[in-house]
Write a structure and sequence with these properties.
Layout (H helix, E strand, L loop, with lengths): L8 E3 H11 L4 E4 L6 H9 L3 E4 L3 H15 L3 E5 L2 H17 L3 E7 L2 H5 L10 H5 L5 E4 L6 H13 L5 E7 H5 L1 E3 H7 L14 H13 L3 E5 L1 H5 L3 H11 L3 E3 L19 H7 L2 E5 L22 E6 L13 E4 L2 H12 L8 H22 L8 H14 L4 E5 L2 H9 L8 E2 L10 H12 L3 E6 H5 L5 H6 L4 E7 L29 H6 L3 E5 L2 H14 L3 E6 L24
Parallel strand pairs: 2-3, 2-4, 4-5, 5-7, 6-7, 9-10, 9-11, 11-12, 12-13, 14-15, 14-16, 16-17, 17-19, 18-19
Antiparallel strand pairs: 1-8
Helix pairs in contact: 1-7, 3-4, 3-18, 10-14, 12-14, 16-17, 16-22
Bound molecules: adenosine-5'-diphosphate and magnesium ion.
């Protein structure tokens, strides 16, 4: 008959890999297992970089961070049900942060799942993924793989980016079809994130509002960092001459020591400004929804906002001048219309902000130079501030409670997209996924500043860091616990407090166990030396930085995030 010879056949494994490669995918963040073990092996054989993690959540966080850093969807691959659910946390994180990511999970066959016959790791994954993703698709036939991958990539990238779930029933991978027909079925996505040009009327309206402001302020968010319009954003900010606040992952878009940077006068500018220009930042909880005492008198401000997502406008406060479009196109249009003719805000406003900034920086400076042992957050982070200034290409990863809050405010960034942290949800445990992605996607040295608690959520991935010999230096800010190491015990029990860990834990041995460099640092001088050695050698390094047990304070009191009991206080 007309049976094709075996060499003219292809199958689901190869079509899926070919479809990803055709669309420029180079790296997969993976955890092998049934039914995707061979998919990972074949992908590696076909020239993709396949990095296997120890737990799907961290592979997923790495894919999410890769999406943020590269403006291309980061790919995470997992097994079915439990592996899928582990990866789903990261997919939801990517969606919440507006980062492009695709979670590809193996699954059981429809006919078994739908009749609930009790398959190995049986779960209706597509239905479960849908509410946590920007889009979710399942591919049932080998000839639809090209379509499925194209739809996933376009959905992840277009408009406001987000996470996409792609369900791969195990049997799909083994399905065969004619090689030539298979190649013809693949699709290379054309222009998945097209420029989104703002309406000229919206530009005029925005400039009118900005012009009439006496005390204007710019707030830049991680959308501005994601946009990769660094030069245009810098030109716009410097042309307008407004003080600006970077949200944590927008730090470094303009250097944090830029004369317009108002980070050290945050309270003053949020309270006193009369017009706030949001660039790729949402007025969500991180900005107290644009209301409350920190924002000054109610109704005292006008808002102008650039966002690619039209429905973001008016989500919390009235936006007087919405600019719907991508940040690069909006900045272009604003600059063109300004045409070099712009009156900067009065010296009365910018000078007052500068004075406040300089005063606060001077007040802080001596505390950052202390050489206390055990260390406090100021002494240890003062060292890291200096080292980041000397090494501006290092990518800073940061998570924890005090380790996060203090590092965010103390450590300046000098270049765009050099900070990866806990994102919109404030997730603990993103550190090692962020660190691996930063090292892999940029090739740069990574410095991960981790609270001892945050590190506990992802610590096993030090093996991954060692296995791929990545230039990652982890500093554990070790104060023996969450918030503080001397946490109170409210119970009448011999159990330790719910917020403390084993005292004098030797985290450096975890790194030594896998062949990396593990050292203990008791003083800022010792910390400086250990980080410098890690940067020079580029070896996987873990520094157990000993912080005084009583140095920290409880976070979650911004905007009253922690409920407190009325009953207990009676
Ligand atoms: P942050 O937490 O740093 O304040 P958010 O995540 O709240 O930042 O806000 C980022 C915003 O940027 C989102 O509303 C998103 O829609 C928007 N955004 C992402 N990419 C672009 C882009 N290229 N152009 C315009 N807006 C963008
Ligand atoms: Mg701690």
């Amino acid at each position: 008959g007309n049976e094709p010879a075996p060499e003219t056949l292809t199958d689901g494994f190869h079509l899926l890999i070919d479809a990803l490669k055709l669309n420029g995918v180079e790296t997969i963040y993976n955890v092998p297992g049934i039914p995707i073990t061979d998919l990972g092996r074949y992908a590696q054989a076909q020239g993709l970089r396949v990095l296997s993690f120890r737990h799907e959540q961290h592979a997923g966080y790495a894919a999410a961070a890769a999406g943020f850093l590269t403006k291309k969807p980061g790919i995470c691959m997992t097994v079915s049900a439990p592996g899928f659910l582990n990866g789903l946390t990261a997919l939801a994180h990517a969606t919440t942060n507006c980062w492009p990511m695709i979670l590809i999970s193996g699954s059981s066959e429809r006919e078994v799942v739908d009749l609930q016959r009790g398959d190995y790791e049986e779960m209706d994954q597509l239905a479960i993924a849908r509410p946590h993703a920007k889009a979710a698709y399942r591919i049932l036939h080998a000839e639809d793989i090209g379509l499925g991958v194209a739809r996933a990539i376009r959905a992840a990238l277009t408009g406001r980016p987000g996470g996409v779930y792609l369900d791969i029933p195990g049997a799909l991978l083994g399905q065969v079809m004619d090689e030539v027909e298979g190649q013809k079925s693949l699709m290379k996505v054309v222009d998945p994130s097209p420029a989104s040009v703002p309406n000229p009327e919206a530009i005029d309206r925005a400039l009118d509002v900005l012009k009439s402001a006496k005390k204007p302020l710019i707030i830049m968010g991680k959308g501005a960092a994601y946009a990769q319009a660094d030069e245009k954003i810098k030109e716009l900010v410097e042309t307008l001459g407004f003080p600006y606040l970077p949200m944590s992952m927008a730090k470094g878009l303009l250097p944090d020591n830029h004369p317009q940077c108002a980070s050290a006068a945050r309270s003053l500018v949020l309270k006193e400004s009369d017009c706030v220009f949001l660039i790729g930042a949402r007025l969500n909880w991180l900005l107290s929804h644009g209301e409350g005492p920190g924002w000054g008198e109610k109704g005292s401000k006008k808002f102008v906002q650039i966002d690619i997502e039209p429905s973001e406008m008016d989500s919390n406060q009235k936006i007087s001048a919405p600019l719907v479009g991508d940040i690069g196109s909006c900045a272009d249009a604003l600059l063109q219309k300004i045409g070099g003719k712009w009156e900067k805000p009065s010296e009365e406003w910018t000078g007052a902000v500068r004075t406040k900034v300089q005063g606060n920086i001077e007040k802080m400076a001596p505390r950052l130079k202390n050489n206390n042992s055990p260390m406090d957050y100021q002494g240890s982070l003062g060292v890291i501030k200096d080292l980041m200034a000397e090494n501006p290409d290092v990518v800073l990863v940061n998570e924890g409670a005090n380790a996060l809050d203090q590092c965010r405010s103390i450590v300046d960034l000098h270049k765009p997209r050099k900070r990866l942290d806990v994102g919109t949800w404030g997730i603990m445990g993103v550190g090692m996924g962020n660190a691996v992605a930063a090292a892999v996607e940029t090739g740069n040295q990574v410095l991960a500043v981790e609270g001892d608690s945050a590190f506990g959520f992802c610590g096993m991935e030090v093996e991954t860091v060692c296995r791929y010999n990545l230039p990652v230096c982890i500093v554990i800010m070790n104060n023996n616990g969450i918030y503080r190491g001397d946490g109170e015990n409210w119970g009448n029990t011999d159990d330790p407090s719910t917020t403390v860990f084993v005292k004098d834990s030797k985290y450096e041995l975890m790194m030594q166990a896998f062949g990396g460099v593990g050292v203990r640092a008791d003083s800022p001088d010792a910390l400086r030396q250990a980080i410098n050695e890690a940067f020079a050698s580029r070896k996987p390094t873990l520094i157990n930085a000993i912080i005084a047990e009583d140095a920290g304070k409880e976070s979650g009191n911004i905007g009253n995030l922690n409920p407190s009991s009325v009953v207990a206080q009676q």
